[in-house]
TrEMBL record:
SMART domains: RING. Signal peptide: none annotated. GO terms for molecular function: zinc ion binding. The keyword Membrane applies. This is Zinc finger, RING-type. The keyword NAD does not apply. Keywords: Membrane, Metal-binding, Transmembrane, Transmembrane helix, Zinc, Zinc-finger. It comes from the Eukaryota. Pfam families: zf-RING_2. InterPro entries: Znf_RING (IPR001841), Znf_RING/FYVE/PHD (IPR013083). The chain crosses the membrane at residues 12-30.
């Protein structure tokens, strides 16, 4: 009978440890949601910087059929160009609706939808990628510094 109660005691300890680890994992998962949101905000600041550089390196104009009779439709949305549409001409000389190109560039970083040529000069893209990598490294480092001590036996105060 004594062996039975010792087994239950060990089972109780293992159950407690298991539940503690599950609790820590749940806390980490809950904490990762705000971290992910912060990361996405930082990515959008990267995207804003990226789009600002595109704005600086490309021209925007209102479509006039008399001035640009060679243009018929936006290759992104496939809509016929109308008088007064806001268009953007990029480095490779392809032209798109300004908003369509902005959406494209947020999802397909740095390439023309038609020729896949770089939208920004290569040096600027390298600088942007370097800045993005540094920011991600800082974010990752900050995130790990918060939960690592708790996993190594410290307290959970930093997690709440």
């Amino acid at each position: 009978m004594r062996a039975f109660f010792e087994s239950l005691s060990h089972l109780y300890k293992f159950t407690f440890i298991f539940l503690y680890l599950v609790l820590v994992e749940v806390v980490l998962q809950i904490r990762s949601v705000p971290q992910s949101l912060r990361r996405s905000c930082k990515q959008s600041s990267f995207t804003r910087e990226y789009l600002a550089r595109i704005e600086k390196n490309s021209s925007t104009f209102m479509f006039r059929k008399k001035i640009r009779p060679d243009l018929n439709e936006c290759a992104i949305c496939l809509l016929k160009l109308e008088e007064g549409d806001r268009l953007r001409e990029i480095q490779c000389k392809h032209v798109f609706h300004k908003d369509c190109l902005g959406s494209w560039l947020q999802h397909h970083l740095a390439t023309c939808p038609l020729c896949r040529g770089l939208v920004l000069p290569e040096e600027e893209m390298i600088e942007l990628y370097r800045l993005q990598a540094e920011q991600e490294q800082v974010n990752s480092s900050n995130e790990h510094s918060r939960w690592l001590p708790a996993l190594l036996g410290g307290n959970l105060h930093g997690l709440y």
